[in-house]
Amino acid sequence: MKLPALTIGSFTARVPIIQGGMSIRVSTSALAVPVAECGGIGTIGGSGIPVAELQEDIRRAKKATKGIIAVNIMYAMKDFHELVMGSIEAGIDMIITGAGFSRDIFRIGKEHNTPIVSIVSSPDFAKLAEKFGAAAIVVESAEAGGHLGTDKPLREIFPAIRKVVSKVPLIAAGGITNGFEMAEVMDKYGADGIQIASRFVLSEECSVSQEFKETYLRANKEDIINVQSPVGMTGRAIRTAFIDRIERGEDVSPEKCKYKCLKKCSYKYCINDRLMASCTGDVDNGLVFCGANAYKMKEILPVKEIFRQFVQDAESVYKEGSENTVQS
């Protein structure tokens, strides 16, 4: 049965897939545009980069597609407000935000007619997000990549949040690697769509280094571990030589903070530097964030083919049709 569309605010994605917004410079317009062209929501990772660079990338994406382009901005960023306002000025369609909770963002979204999508990991924050005006809510579980807000798996946390959210679309995120799992969370758990990130790292269009992608391709289950981020949250990443150094207790802190990008930082290491190192090819000295099931993916595909496989597999088993779609 055909998958339902996903409506968030005034925007409707014909395929209910949001591409996760991975920072720093992992999810750029190069990836977001083909996702949008395939009918999903393409997301630019907006954290940890200068406002002007983000605006340029948003404008590049908006010029290249009539599809939906979002930006993901972590509330933990010191320049959160500037990144939000800069994104709106550049013409972004919607803003996705997590890693903390901002009440002001909903007022800003309303004033500028920009839908705000909240990433949450608990029923309490889901209720708050709906109350303050989120246009949609992403439930991010323990299987997700990058910074984690919970240790509860998707199939435990999603039903609890589904019970308290009824007015806006609820999107499942964390560990979803194929269309069969997509259909499961939509059919069995009532998700209105999914957000996936790691699968898109292994796309031809993702602009990270080949070394970054090879780290994904070589990863076994035991290579995917949790690390402590200077943000103050646990993060999930693939083991690298840099992580080995941390575990041996070596001093990996920077001599001087170059960015001062976070509201709170332990300064144990510079997450901006370490994410960018891997992104540009220096994996041994970098951090490679990934989802818990990244080890299951063993091929690099065009975005169009990733969509084709997800939709084909999901529709081969999907039962509920458009009944799950919640209009906002």
TrEMBL record:
<dbReference type="GO" id="GO:0018580">
    <property type="term" value="F:nitronate monooxygenase activity"/>
</dbReference>
<dbReference type="GO" id="GO:0051213">
    <property type="term" value="F:dioxygenase activity"/>
</dbReference>
<keyword id="KW-0288">FMN</keyword>
<dbReference type="Pfam" id="PF03060">
    <property type="entry name" value="NMO"/>
</dbReference>
<keyword id="KW-0223">Dioxygenase</keyword>
<dbReference type="InterPro" id="IPR013785">
    <property type="entry name" value="Aldolase_TIM"/>
</dbReference>
<keyword id="KW-0560">Oxidoreductase</keyword>
<dbReference type="InterPro" id="IPR004136">
    <property type="entry name" value="NMO"/>
</dbReference>
<protein>
    <submittedName>
        <fullName>NAD(P)H-dependent flavin oxidoreductase YrpB, nitropropane dioxygenase family</fullName>
    </submittedName>
</protein>
<keyword id="KW-0285">Flavoprotein</keyword>
